[in-house]
Specification:
The protein has helices at residues 34-46, 121-124, 127-141, 144-167, 171-223, 247-260, 262-268, 289-292, 295-315, 333-343, and strands at residues 3-9, 12-18, 22-27, 66-74, 77-85, 92-95, 98-99, 112-115, 229-234, 279-284, 287-288, 321-325, 348-353, 366-371, 374-377. The chain has 378 residues and is an alpha/beta fold.
């Protein structure tokens, strides 16, 4: 990535930064806008923020829209990606100053892997945090999956609305709802089966990289085995299903699960079957990582997941921008050194740090000082 331009994004009215390969560190006290910069870069890659769930906080106070512009190199040519964020309205995008039909048409031009303090939730947080991790990586690998995910969310919303109406309806109306539900059952199973199969395939690809990355971060080459950490896709359908990457298998499994839980769904007025209820179960030494892993071990697993993501994308033939947001302040000295050795060879690494002393010597490179929304070489 060669450059970043922002207009009315977060705390920045205007900013224009030239970026280079190797390591670049954004240095500044807390609250100066360091994370806003890397958040914008990641947004251009995923069309979502790793910090907030909606676009509203991304627009500077008093402005009605924000614009992110990034210069990237794809297939030996320079490409300018521009994304216009319009809270409450459809976002728009341009490639080389030409509009595209949908904002998601820019996906795949820039790949990033972001590790941030919020990533501790991948181990300690709710299943929704881990589902989002899977889906974000899935969409980076295959941008068309954003359309699949959007279709699934739309079908789920419609089906839940129908179940809710049945929950409060008279018996005659319930009978009519049940007949209509059949149409939504088929759509939910068809699209949900595709999404679930893709998730399972992704975890299969991620798993060996995760074990290796965890072993290196947690204890070096000899102290920890890659087999110590595990990652398994857990379907809400329970032990009746196998985690296989087969779309038709999951379609049939979802239809069967819907049929078995029909009365319960009608009683509760909500969809109880589908990938919106699945989880990624992380284990450490044969025990669930959530609740058993120490703070340091949890950080190592979370880092391992991000480094494994990096390797999965590399395995696809890409070289993502690695972003480490205020990570070293959270790690002890041995883990800092091991992480530094792992990432030093990346083509482009972007770091944020409150003080330069937090950045290991192995990652010394260009430094940009961030002060009150201004960015300049240190």
């Amino acid at each position: 990535m060669a450059g970043l331009r922002l207009s009315d994004f977060r705390s920045y009215e205007k900013v224009d930064i030239t970026l280079t390969s190797g390591v670049t560190t954004f240095v500044g006290e807390n609250g100066q806008g360091k994370t806003n910069l890397i958040e914008a870069i990641a947004y251009a890659s995923t069309l979502g923020s790793h910090r907030v769930a909606t676009d509203v906080p991304l627009v500077r106070a008093g402005a009605d829209r924000a614009v992110i512009g990034v210069d990237v190199t794809r297939d030996d040519r320079q490409v300018l990606i521009e994304i216009e964020i319009n809270p409450g309205r459809a976002n728009r995008a341009r490639i080389n100053q030409s509009g595209v039909p949908r904002a998601r048409d820019v996906l795949g031009l820039l790949h990033t892997v972001v590790f941030a303090p919020e990533d501790l939730a991948l181990v300690k947080g709710d299943p929704s945090d881990r589902r989002r991790f899977i889906d974000d990586l899935l969409i980076q690998r295959s941008p068309r999956m954003m359309g699949v995910k959007s279709d699934y969310d739309r079908i789920l919303k419609q089906r839940n609305a129908l179940l809710k109406s049945a929950f409060s309806a008279r018996k005659a109306a319930v009978d009519e709802v049940e007949r209509t539900l059949g149409v939504w059952d088929e759509q939910l199973a068809e699209v949900g089966g595709e999404l679930t199969a893709a998730r399972v395939a992704l975890i299969d690809d991620l798993r060996p990289f995760l074990g290796h990355a965890y072993a290196l971060i947690a204890g070096g080459d000899d102290a920890v085995s890659p087999a110590d950490v595990t990652a398994e896709y857990q379907s809400a359908l329970g032990d009746a299903v196998e985690p296989v990457p087969d779309r038709e298998y999951w379609r049939e499994a979802l239809l069967d699960g819907i049929a078995r839980r029909r009365s319960e769904e009608l009683d509760r007025g909500i969809t109880l079957v589908g990938p919106q209820r699945d989880d990624l179960v992380l284990g450490l030494g044969g025990m669930p990582a959530k609740g058993f892993a120490s703070h340091g071990e949890s950080w190592s697993i979370a880092l391992g997941l991000r480094l494994a993501s990096l390797e999965v994308l590399r395995d696809d033939g890409d070289d993502p921008v690695l972003i480490l947001d205020d990570v070293f302040a959270e790690l002890d000295a041995p883990r800092r050194r091991r992480l530094s050795r792992q990432v030093a060879g990346c083509t482009q690494v972007l770091l944020t740090a409150a003080v330069t002393e937090d950045v290991p010597a192995e990652l010394d490179g260009r430094r940009l000082l961030v002060t009150r929304g201004r960015v300049a070489d240190d």
